[in-house]
Amino acid sequence: MTVFITGGTRGIGKEIALRFAHDGAKRIALGYLRNDSAAEAAAEEVRAAGAEVVLVRGNVSSEKTLEEVVALGPLDALIHNAATGVVRPAMETEDKHWDWTMNANARALLSLARAVVPQMKPGSSIVGISSLGSIRVLENYVLIGTSKAALEALIRYLAVELAPKGIRVNAVSAGVVQTAALEHFPNRDEMLAAGAANPVGRLVQPADVAGAVSFLCSPDAAMVCGHVLIVDGGFLLPTAIGGGLGE
Q1: Is-catalytic flag, 148?
Q2: Predicted confidence (pLDDT) per residue in 12-28, tens digit
């Protein structure tokens, strides 16, 4: 099994890579943008888990990087986990911030799909990593949330187009996960507190997201098509309105 994971050297991406290694994947390619030391450290962890590792450095939507991904050969799974964005209120954003966020979080998956799908075989999977900001309004999250909504729409369109080829396309939408990415949010502490206030009673862990991705790429998910699997400990379920309907 050959897997390519964008943003695969830290946080959720690295945990997904480790899960695939434990599941028996023989070769795992880790995409990353610029942190070579973190990439090498992640590669060592994944190798220790039993998989061959290939590091792919660069912007995943650039021609050069896409050529490197195609050179990996047929992929059994493509996981688009890489994400970035400007954390600001809507009125403080600029068009360049929109372009950067949308390109990295949504368009990159389309570019990757166009590049790798011709080599993918029936039974292969594509999974995008989304977030609750795609359907709920989070503070300072307008650009990232909008890009994740676009990602989920793209997942549905790709799912319908690629299903006749035997390629499954789905997404995992995670609740608040404590990773280094949260350091960029001025309301980090409030996000962590809110994320843990779910019916399960704890924060979502990277391993929880990795488990969901593993399922979607397994034969057990053969009939799961264009689905966004929410992993949030039930965070979205309770209403903010107190009392029962009859009270």
Answers
A1: yes
A2: 999 999 999 999 999 99
